[in-house]
């Protein structure tokens, strides 16, 4: 493809994304960063973990994304008694009119293009692990048979703070499957006023469809073809490797505080999401500012502080911000 054709494709996709964000903004008031990160994850073909207290609009955001992106969505409310079969589906024994019996597979709610895993950390680790194969390989194996999931396939999971009662921490292997972790904060006063006025009247805004599943798959292809400069590639590698305590590039703050750091998936996530972030800003290639802006959502769930660092009151976000500023010479997003 020629450079001119590529530029036209990127510009057209940028226009469509601005239309999608406008539709989302009619329902999700404020939270521009949260919306941008969620769209970046979907454009990159990945999954997102929404972190925040109840009542901050996480569920509404996922439902709005499903409508605007034109995806067939299902929702699973995770509870302590949820079983893997409730997600993946199961085989049932049926009796035909002639008296013969045969097993029939009934698909679970995971067979959707956009799966909302609501309060994912309220389910037991056994049930959480049922998503591992689906999130990585886009297929599930039930009763010895592998079945493909619809395309595109995205998981947008919500999670309450782990300090709340009745929650189970997600295993590290599953956390790594999420492209980004998105912290959903409380709105500021002006935004909360707008929410109050918009949601307590007789009419509420309804989003309309902008994308189709095919258009989203095409957009994911465009993201992967976007050019990335060698300097940005080296910056991504430098940042990810600097966050590993046993790496030669690790600064003293990482060696002293971090128990384990991000793997290669973190570099892949930074490469893809920085492209999507640049495109949504109307640019043709990512910059150091994009890498710095995405460092926190990409790295925070792929690292852990050591016990001694936690006992000293150290905060992982501060470590990521310091390393990011050192590598990119740009302050990382809070």
Per-chain topology:
Layout (H helix, E strand, L loop, with lengths): L2 H25 L4 H12 L4 E4 L6 H11 L4 E5 L6 H5 E7 L5 E7 L6 E5 L6 H4 L3 H6 L1 E4 L2 E4 L5 E6 L12 H6 L2 E4 L5 H11 L13 H13 L4 H13 L9 H6 E3 L3 H17 L7 H12 L4 E2 L1 H5 L4 H13 L6
Helix pairs in contact: 1-3, 1-9, 2-12, 10-12, 10-13, 10-15, 12-13, 13-15
Polypeptide structure, described:
It is a single chain. By secondary structure, this protein is of the alpha/beta class. The protein has 15 helices and eleven strands. It has helices at 3-27, 32-43, 58-68, 84-88, 125-128, 132-137, 172-177, 189-199, 213-225, 230-242, 252-257, 264-280, 288-299, 307-311, 316-328; strands at residues 48-51, 73-77, 89-95, 101-107, 114-118, 139-142, 145-148, 154-159, 180-183, 258-260, 304-305. The strands form four sheets. A five-stranded parallel sheet has the order 2-5-8-1-9. It starts with a helix and ends in a 6-residue tail after the last helix. The model has no long low-confidence stretch (mean pLDDT 90).
